[in-house]
Amino acid sequence: MVKGIERFSLEGKCALVTGGAKGIGRAIGEAMSAAGASVIVADMDLREAEKTAAALGGSAIALEVTDAKAVEAAVAGLEALDTLINNAGIVHNGPSTEIDIAAWERVIDVNLSGVFRTARAFGRAMVARGKGSVISTSSICGQVPVWPQPQAAYNAAKAGVNLVTKSLAVEWARSGVRVNAVAPGYTATELTLAGRSKPEWYNVWLDRTPMGRLADPD
Ligand SMILES: NC(=O)c1ccc[n+]([C@@H]2O[C@H](COP(=O)([O-])OP(=O)(O)OC[C@H]3O[C@@H](n4cnc5c(N)ncnc54)[C@H](O)[C@@H]3O)[C@@H](O)[C@H]2O)c1
Q1: pTM for the whole thing?
Q2: CA 196 – ligand 1 centroid, Å
Q3: Which of 76, 81, 120, 144 is the most buried (most CB within 10 A)?
């Protein structure tokens, strides 16, 4: 018999969303909570995470994804997860001839190493239990550089997320742990606010998007 809508139920499941306080992460947390999951909003901004958690009926923790000790402490302090959403991310725009190497390193640390650090720490318990799901927020920028804004670090980090995702998916498949990524296009969140205020960028984004608009996080 074909199962119905209940196959999408997350009742009894526990999910943690990094960068869950705002934007796409918040929308993911809201959707998972509405589907019955118990959602932990994990963010470097604890105040915002607490507000979001209160709104969706979940809990909040402070989590900086570049801090290996904090990530390990979060694993130790929480019940085993069914789902990890690796979503925390930042962008830095600047010409590659001039960009400060510290800005490059920060973007790689948050967007790429942060994904690996968090997946590895929470994935260890999933592999031991023989089940779990890791989903990372990649980007269209991981497949092809966007234009006209210069952002080599962001693009490289997201391309790395795609291959880390495939690598872990292959490594953990026989342990019953699934690893996937989603790759949104331009989405109306704080991350794109600066770009949306520059007509010379924003008009190109809209022109090159067949629907002629940004995605809504929801
Ligand atoms: N907005 C877009 O157009 C777009 C498109 C494709 C992919 N993405 C990706 O989606 C994800 C979410 O982006 P968004 O647009 O919702 O951004 P956003 O700026 O609205 O929200 C990002 C959240 O991540 C948190 N965060 C940032 N750095 C962190 C860190 N080091 N540790 C923990 N939390 C941290 C922030 O506090 C914030 O709550 C990112 O990985 C981004 O690269 C965004």
Answers
A1: 0.98
A2: 16
A3: 81
